[in-house]
Amino acid sequence: MREDKGPSGPSAATPGRRLTFLVGALGLLVLLCLLSIAVGSRQIPLDQVVRALTGPHDTEVGRIVWDVRLPRTLLGLLAGAALGLGGAIMQALTRNPLADPGLLGVSAGAGFGLMLAVGLAGISSLYGYVWFAFAGAAVASVVVYVLGGVGRSGQTPVKLALAGIAVTFLLESVTRGVSLIDPQVLNRYRFWSSGSLTGQNTALIVQVLPFLAVGAVLALSLAPALNNLALGDDVAASLGRRLLGIRLQGAVAVTLLTGTAVALAGPIVFVGLVIPHAVRAVSGPDQRWLLPLSALLAPCLLLAADVAGRVVVRPEELDVGIVSALIGAPFFIMLVRRRRLAEL
Q1: pLDDT of residue 304
Q2: How far apart are CA 107 and CA 200, in angstroms?
Q3: CA-CA 20 to 30 A from 219: which of 185, 242, 313, 342?
Q4: Does residue 157 surpass a pLDDT of 80?
Q5: C-alpha–C-alpha distance, residues 88 and 84, integer Å
Q6: DSSP assigned state of 268
Q7: Which of 315, 341, 328 is nearest to 100 (CA)?
Q8: What distance in Å separates the CA atoms of residue 301 and residue 309, rounded to the nearest whole number?
Q9: Which spans are transmembrane here (predicted)?
């Protein structure tokens, strides 16, 4: 008989606490969406933002909101949710607290595939180059997984992180070399490589929704199986779980989510690392809550970083990838320096 109940014990949160956390996350997300639309080179009062969203689009404020700010906010929502879900799935599958698409080479692999498509093959359409991003993400994750298991001690969180960092640096170096072939590609790469939510329109964002939807469904449907997997491979197998199928489904979900996010916003690191840990500290380890809450809170972090990047160096802007790295790097160092870095 298959047991799908979530983990219990001292770390398990009560349903009331989880529900309160969920409502609070939704409220915070709505507030940050409004701030993302309101804050910029031109400040727009929140009441005018609401009127522009619900009224005519042909006014000056309406054009700013609908043509510039809203696509940027939508991209932050989708990319943040994708990276948060991808990081949570990776941490659960590998039982590695340092797992993150940006740290384990998945984002760099997607970027490498994307640059091959754009720089060498001359592919300019989203539906053309996004498949290269998926392939690059998948190959990079396999390489990191294999390298992280080399040695007598087998895979450890730190070894996987080091393998991911090494593969990331290698792929980024090759990607920069490819970008030097064409000056136009180089300019595009320089803008894209820092991680940014600007430069995309609503129509292009809508085109990637099917990829993100499939990835999200695959990820969220894994929650009961991941709860069983947290008890150990032997226990999960005895409960009727097919371990290979779980890992393949998780790999496909991470590839779709990360590849799409990187294709649109560039390599944004640490979002998938920080958010699952923050959620786990409040809601407990039950993946049925951790995954959807990570998908809600990760866009909050990304939008907050984007808003902060518009404010701290005004009238210029810092790209969201730079701000998220400044937020996430100290958290990563804290995790590595812990005396007991146990597997999840």
Answers
A1: 95
A2: 19
A3: 342
A4: no
A5: 6
A6: -
A7: 328
A8: 12
A9: 20-41, 73-90, 102-122, 129-148, 160-181, 202-226, 246-277, 289-312, 318-336
Mean pLDDT, residues 139-149: 88
User: For residues 207 and 202, what is the distance between their CA atoms, to the nearest angstrom?
Assistant: 9
Cβ-defined contacts of 124-128 (< 8 Å, 24+)? 126/204, 126/207, 126/208, 126/263, 127/207
- Single-letter residue type at 304: A
Residue written as token pair 């720089």: 119
pLDDT in tens, 293-318: 999 999 999 999 999 999 988 888 89
Please give the backbone phi and psi of residue 159, each rounded to the nearest 5 degrees, phi first: -65, -40
The amino acid at residue 61 is V
Tokens 């990081």 found at = 87
Eight-class DSSP state of 176 = H
Token reading at 335: 């995790």
Digit-coded pLDDT (tens) for 57-87: 888 899 999 999 999 999 999 999 999 999 9
Confidence grade of residue 11 (pLDDT, cut at 50, 70, 90): very low
Q: Single out the residue of 36, 25, 30, 31 nearest to residue 296, CA to CA.
A: 25
Q: Residue 151: which H helix or E strand, with range? A: none
Could you give the 3-state DSSP secondary structure of residue 301? helix
Cα distances (Å, whole numbers) of residue 309 to 144, 196, 197, 275, 276:
32, 10, 11, 19, 23
- Residue corresponding to tokens 């009331």: 16
Q: Which domains, from first to last, does the chain contain?
A: 63-337 (1.10.3470.10)
The amino acid present at 32, given as its one-letter code, is L
Contacts (Cβ under 8 Å, ≥6 apart) of 21: 13, 282, 283, 293
Q: What is the mean pLDDT of residues 254-261?
A: 94
